[in-house]
Amino acid sequence: MWGLQYDENLSDNPFFQEILANHGDIVRRASQEQWIICIPRAGAFEASEINSETIFDHILVPSATPHEYFCTLTKKQVWIRNKEIVTVEDRPNGTIRVLFEETFYIEDLKYLVFCLERPLFMDRIICDAHRPNVPETLHDCIDFLWGKNLGHVLGKVQRLCASFVEQNRGFATENLQSQRDLVGSLYSQCLQVILKNQKLSGECENLKLAVETYMQSCLDKTLIKAVNTVTCFKDASFNKIVRNSSDLQLKDLNIANKFCDIITNAKIELSKINNYVTILDKVNCLKLTFNHLYNTNVCLTSDDILQIFVFLIIKLNINNWTSNLVYLTQFQFSTLNVSNESNFLVTTLEAALEFVKSSQFAQIKSSQQPMNRIFQTIATNDSAQLRDLLKYKRTAGSDTNLCHPLCDCDSCRSADSSHDVAMTNEKGQSLLTFAALFGRCEMVELLMGMGAEVETRDYFGKAPLHYAAMKGHQDVLLILVNRKAEVNAKDHDGNTPLHLACSNGHESCVKALFYTCRNLDVDCVNKRGETPLHLAVKWNYVGILRILLENHAIAAIANKKNQLPVNLAQNYYTEKLLRQYNKNLEPTQEIGGLYPTSDTKTVACKEHGIRPKGLELIKKIDLLLKAIENNDLPLTCFYLGFSTDSSSDYNFQSKCHPLCNCEKCEDRDEGPRKVVDRINVNSCNIDGFTPLHFAAKFGRTELLRILLDCRALPNLKTYKTLQSPLHLACIHQRLPAVKELAKCANCDVDSQDYKGNTPLYYACVKNDARIVEALLNNGANCDVRNHQGHSVIKEVQEKRLYGISALLKDEASEDFL
Question: At residue 644, does pLDDT exceed 60?
């Protein structure tokens, strides 16, 4: 009987193996004279039927005219129409479909091989009655079980799955092999319940497939979420590649425009893959996608299929491709589901994913090349030529040197010097925007030095800073921010640079924005109502998510689909991290051991420290502050719960650079290890003084660094005087403490106390030029007025502090007398 196997690897096809083994002359002639070798799919022939005559029947030799007509080596006429081979003989089954074509190479020559759905010139006809009745979807499986009077058993499978979920609450945190073993054990239990009916032994394979599929549907999101957790970081890495390649078009992947229509239909079908929770349904989704590609009049090769799948992966809004692949390959226990066709579909998906991760894909560049010569110099990174083009100015009457006034030849374009630093291309992008897009630091500095507008917008509403953040050019981003680029500017989609950096996975740019920008809006929403937190969660960027939460991103903002960030979480890590923060952005429990806790109940205030409840804890905090005053570091570490050894070994040297992520600098970021019993670093005494207040007041710089590294809040104020740690450091002239506090990204250098005075006011009154300079370097505003309406400048003038006056002169907007 003719088997209906799907041929995946032609090298394993017995018919093709026979040609290679005993008919090498045919292969050589095919490569020299462009013959086509036709190979019926595996199972089309019995071994005894493969002979020289049948092989000669499947070698197509091109006719002289017309080009679509061919003649076999047995002198039989055929012609090729789209993806079908039509025999000239009038037969009811005279049209044979070409499943795919593949190119093989022999030395420096190549030949083409067609894989056919059935043999040419044979009387065998495929009958639907011969097709095995294999379930293809979850609904087919349920219908099959009900048809075998097993509907009552479905409830037992549901109870087994519910018990499995209840008993394995930590299932998502298990490694892949443990997850597979646990699910395999559950599958065996479900089979034992079903197979007690001995009458069904004849349809055992279909039964196994139906049980496996129904079990997966009962586990629902539990199993999917567990696999997503295992592959979370691989998915994040893959998503970053895809997100940064989203501008690639069909021609960049060498896909012909004739495939546009079938790609659209295939894209719609493949976008549904995450709507299914069973392997059978996901494989069927892939199958339907392939049907959209094949059931057309357009002929596709295997190379075309791979390129189209790569294009679909890039353009689809799916964030867990790696997880889907692992699920399809590691959780199939039914042998019937592991068919040749299923393997071919999954292998094609795997090949496309591997290609996207390859260095070959990384070298693919967008074919949208700039038309203007000066933009080409930016694309090719030719700084010298760019400088020459911008310096050259056309003189009056220079048109006489052109061939004619509208000439566009190379020599006339060279003579045309109408290059302006503000000129734009066909997308409305200025030279500065284009340089930021390509990450050309030297050119960005050159253009800004020549007066380029840093806030210029293109037709999409994007400024240079948007493109620097979107493409991950941290160095360009820092230059633009330093030139006062608007960090909260929105494009036409409502996205800020922070949105784009989070969406494309550029953690270094996210860090740079928080490090350099004090007014960064971390909770800004775009036109879809999404905050940067939504995007970080959606694309599995756990590192970026942690940075956003540590910088007080609000996790309680819903998008226009009424989805909170936690609703978008698809794995254990992101969901846990989000649930550890409450609406006020204070952690509800420790995250990675960074946040100290206390067994005693405390009352928190947004502006002040955590006020303890209970006499014992109040006394402990007083003893802690006394230890800080006495500079007793071991005792201070004891009360705060820090290990004495770790605090003495802690290296306070500066990083390689502020945003460095090397192992050495990451070790410094972790700070000292902590032990279990401790006082919260943001606890305060009855006057509102926190440990950070005392460390700043008494100049305990080493301890101050430890507290800041352990998330001590630098803007908490005392109860009566409303003074922050920076106020106290300035009042008591603690320069090292001022520098440490002022360089914190979330430190408010213009914080006002109960009189309305800022830290800069007290530094000026104390006539401490070094502290004044440190504050001004960190953005202190000398125009802020206190409650009496006096500014720092007025006080300096009244006290005739000429040294301080000279420092303030360049920063102040008021006129000096």
Answer: no
